[in-house]
Amino acid sequence: MSESKPPTPTPGDTYKGWLFKWTNYIKGYQRRWFVLSNGLLSYYRTQAEMGHTCRGTINLATANIAVEDSCNFVISNGGAQTYHLKASSEVERQRWITALELAKAKAVRMQAESDDSGDECPAMPPTSGQGGGGRNSEVQSTLRTLGSKVEDLTTCNDLIVKHGSALQRSLSELEGLRVGGDMGEKIRQVTERATLFRITSNAMINACRDFLSLAQNHSKRWQKALQAERDQRIRLEETLEQLAKQHNHLERAFRGATVLPSSFSNPALANKGGVSGKGDASDEDDDNEFFDAMEDPAEFITVPADPKYHRRSGSNVSGISSETGMDDQSVNFDELSLASNPDSPQSLELEPVRQRRTRIPDKPNYYLNLWSIMKNCIGKELSKIPMPVNFNEPLSMLQRLSEDLEYYELLDKAAKCQSSLEQMCYVAAFTVSSYSTTVHRTGKPFNPLLGETFELDRLRECGYRSLCEQVSHHPPAAAHHAASEKGWSLRQEITLASKFRGKYLSIMPLGSIQCLFEKSNNHYSWKKVTTTVHNIIVGKLWIDQSGEIDVVNHRTGDRCHLKFAPYSYFSRDVPRKVTGVVTDKDGKAHYVLSGTWDEKMEFSRVMQSSKGENGTEGKQRTVYQTLKAKEIWKKNPLPEGAENMYYFSSLALTLNEPEEGIAPTDSRRRPDQRLMEDGRWDEANAEKQRLEEKQRTARREREREAVKAVNSPEEGAHPDNYQALWFEKLDDPVSGETLHVYKGGYWEAKDQGNWDMCPDIF
Q1: What are residue 664's phi and psi, to 5 degrees?
Q2: Which domain holds residue 33?
Q3: Element of type H or E holding 396
Q4: 191/73 same-domain check
Q5: How does 467-503 read in b/e, with b if 16+ C-beta sit within 10 Å?
Q6: Would 301 be classed as within a structural domain?
Q7: SS3 content of the chain, % helix, strand, coil (to 5)
Q8: Does residue 315 lie in a domain region?
Q9: Which chain positions lie within coiled-coil regions (predicted)?
Q10: Cα–Cα–Cα angle for 453, 411, 516, nearest 5°?
Q11: Residue 596 falls within a domain, yes or no?
Q12: Which pTM does this prediction carry?
């Protein structure tokens, strides 16, 4: 125990340190690293585990804290969790007890406030029309902070009173024992000191209350001054906007006066620049330079531009996209260009090739004893557990992978970008959008059978088509390939590692996703984050995504670091928050992305970055000065009645729709999945067991063939060396990864109607 002396705990601080935790009668007390933060006490085996593995957490809001002896104490939340802890010394134990009681008092207060009112929601950042309200709210926030500090001090006082009273009672009892005179004198001295300590703490509380009262008395004066500044700023902005408009009108009038007479006198010569000669050419150049100047980001900060003027200058923005990147306006221009492009998916959707279905049968309400199934599954690999269809949704994992293409428009826009940094923003938004369909989808997709495929042909409607194939069964692995007429292709190989932990289910996707653009030869790759399903046994199921993603452009070295913040009850951040920074190969930040993975993402261009104040963990934060954020992606609304249809999106509703001409191994032909969709769950369970037994029989047959081929010079059919039908395993020279890549032939076989090579898996 050579650690330095920990700081005295204060209200709201994160408290960390080593404690000994009772494990069992064999191992006894074991040294563990404990972290107290936001009313939660968590422990880890080592400090290195803090980033990835938490061994246990207890909520202090409902916990009882009891002291056993000079070094031992117990924390329990009513029997479900009990920690028997031991400190290295009595002083260390007292520090922990003080920190725990402070944290418990604060957690109880926060829980009571959140239950009583909805005022604890995080305030939204003020818009340009709410500047004064934002200033006033800032003052109110300061006052609330002061009030919170006084409440913390009040809590300290209550604890001091509590312990002081207990101390005085104990000393009074000792004094009543009529021991020696010296002992009585000592006890009286300690009692006086305890009384003086309590009086001093009361004086501190009174001083803080006086300060808060003084601040409240002056708050009206502050608000009045801030309101005056707000009104003055608004008047200044309006004046500058009027000046900008007048300047714009004067420029137009000047050009009209110099150019129009020559065009009226001789249009042909005016078009060639013959009449005005050098003057017309310079006017044309001045016109372009004027619009480019309005592209300067600094001017958008100081002078709000007219919306009509933005639209007119859109033609010039695309020309400089490669030099200046995507600024405050380019997303709107890109959307306008896509809308006007006759080849764009939006225009093609006006003449749909096929009317897709918009509903599936409602999910039946079948009762199932969850615990009777789950109690035998703790610690096992999820893919090896025979689960009834009651836990499923009528889609396979291959179809869930294809749902990543729901927001394919982001890749269409990315393919049009001239700047690789701009393209990175769209690719990063696409990676986040793939999680938007999971927020309410608590059902487990069907595990695909080995050799099972799924095609998603949207070539005529959306300009792309994709193919998935289950290339391995243990561990389960699926390969996916998608190609678009817009000049991009997507490929991924995902292996799911999942563990049931009793209270929650963790799903860790292994493997990578790659996106390639033909025009620029940009090659992107990234991995997926961990999905956690909470309240498996008791309570309502809910899903969270957490972890970090690095989207890398292997050609240019550009990188986007995305962070999916895990949900925390005590956090004041927006739930399901995602943040990201786009940097070039030198590490210079160019764009900042922020939003939530279940709703929308925004981006803003970085104008300047600097090192700010130190964060809670001592790391220096980077401050980015950015332009106004623009929306780059927004989730599509769910169809009507989605809560009765497994919360499927509009695309998901069409994935299991029967189609003609598909391969016999396609997921749409899977009988148990079809029976479940139709609401015939008992038959679906029986059919699911039949298919799983058929797959096990096929595996045993491959094992027997492998044994026969051991001594044969020819290559045997080893069960672990299953050869996929449409994909082959290759080394990617760009990313250095090994994955299954589409080798071709599927769509040609479909055109010919020749599926003789497909195995009989259903």
Answers
A1: -65, -15
A2: 14-110
A3: strand 392-396
A4: no
A5: bbbbbbbeebbbbbbbbbebbbbbbbbbebebebeee
A6: no
A7: 45, 25, 30
A8: no
A9: 219-253
A10: 70
A11: yes
A12: 0.56
